[in-house]
Amino acid sequence: MMIERLMNETTPPLRPDDSVEHALGLMMELRVEHLPVVTETGHLVGLVSEEQLLRADSPGQRVERLLRAEPVSIMPGAHIFDAAKALSKHHLTILPVADSEQCYVGMVRRQEIFERFAEMFRTDAAGAILALEVNPRDYALSQLTYAVEQNDIKILSIASETDATEDDKIRITLKLDTRDTARVRHVLEHHGYTVIASFNEEEDDMDLQHRVDEFMRYLEV
Fold first, then answer.
1. Count of the separate structural domains present in the chain
2. Which of 20, 78, 122, 206 could form a Cys-Cys staple with 56, CB 3.0–4.6 A?
3. What is the phi/psi pair of residue 133, to 5°?
4. Residue at which a domain ends, from 117, 138, 164
5. What are the angstrom distances between the C-alpha of 113 and each of 16, 65, 79, 132?
C-alpha cells in the first residue's frame, strides 16, 4: 500500500512564525508529539517535537528557532513499510509527506500505520495464531504454505523476523482461518519448525499488537 492512500491532508502543519504555546496547544488537540513546520509557500522546513517545545526559552518563542536538522519526510509514492521504518527509526508520532523538492503534501500518523498493519494481519478475522521458529536453512515459504494448506487450512496473514539473539533463527507469525491447530502444529514440527506459541481467537488482539510492535522493530534493521 502506498502512503498517499493513508495521507492526512486536512491536519494543519505549523508555520515558522507560530509560537511555542500555539504549537503545544495544537499537539495536545491532535494527540501527537511531533508536527511538521511548513512555510506559507508550502515548503517543508522542519519537524518539531513536544520535547523541544517544552525546552524552549519562552511560550512566545517562534518554532523556527527550534529547528535543527533537515526534516524527516517520505514521498507520497513510498510503501507503508518504508513509512513504518522511518517512524520507528526516528521515534516519531507523525511523518511528513513531501515531494522530491520538499514541497509539503500532508502527513501520516503512526496510529494510522498501526491500524493498517492490523488490517493486513487480519485481526478482524476469526482464527488462531501460531508463532514459529526455524533455522534459515530450513525455511522455504512454499514449503511452509504447503504444509499448512494440505490440512485444509488457509493462511490469512504471515510475518517473519530474524532473532539475532537466537542464532539468527527466523521467527514467523501465522494467522490461520481455524482455531484447531493441533494437526498443523504436528506437521510443521515434522518439517523442522518449532512452535513457540499458539493463540486462540480470544487472545488475538493482545498478541497481534505485540507481534506488530516486534515487526516494526524488525523493520529498523
1. 2
2. 20
3. -140, 140
4. 117
5. 27, 30, 11, 25
